[in-house]
Write a structure and sequence with these properties.
This protein has 117 residues and is α+β, with helices and mostly antiparallel strands. It has one domain. 33% of the residues lie in helices and 28% in strands. The chain has a six-stranded mixed beta sheet with strand order 1-6-5-4-3-2, with helices on both faces. The longest helix has 18 residues. The radius of gyration is 14 Å and the shape is globular.
Length: 117
């Protein structure tokens, strides 16, 4: 699992408290057991974002500012024997994932693919 710099910036803006970001980080480590066939990662729900090929994970936090965070990620590896999940960013779960966000996260995934090769 790898977290891109824009994702760190998203989480810094979204979760100003260090404690909340630490909790999110602990929850993101559950992605090590991600299986594209299963609907849950341990106890976290995830969905495919159809037009982009990305996936979104919903993480509930005990933060006073944000209750649930939507984390966007995708699987890509130049070496198929070493699968890698890339965390692209995050947003509040109650925010709409519109065409602008689709373009942003698709662009981030394209940059990751270009740099990983």
């Amino acid at each position: 699992m790898r977290i891109g710099r824009p994702a760190f910036q998203d989480f810094q803006r979204l979760l100003p408290r260090y404690r909340a970001r630490s909790e999110l980080n602990r929850q993101l480590h559950k992605l090590r057991w991600w299986n594209p066939v299963e609907p849950l990662v341990i106890d976290l729900q995830w969905n495919r974002v159809e037009p982009t090929g990305l996936a979104e994970l919903f993480v509930q936090l005990d933060d006073g500012v944000v209750d649930t965070v939507r984390v966007l990620f995708f699987e890509y590896s130049p070496d198929p024997s070493v699968p890698t999940l890339w965390i692209l960013g995050g947003m509040r779960a109650d925010e709409a994932l519109g065409s602008l966000q689709h373009a942003i996260y698709s662009g981030r995934s394209t940059i990751v693919q270009a740099r990983a090769d």
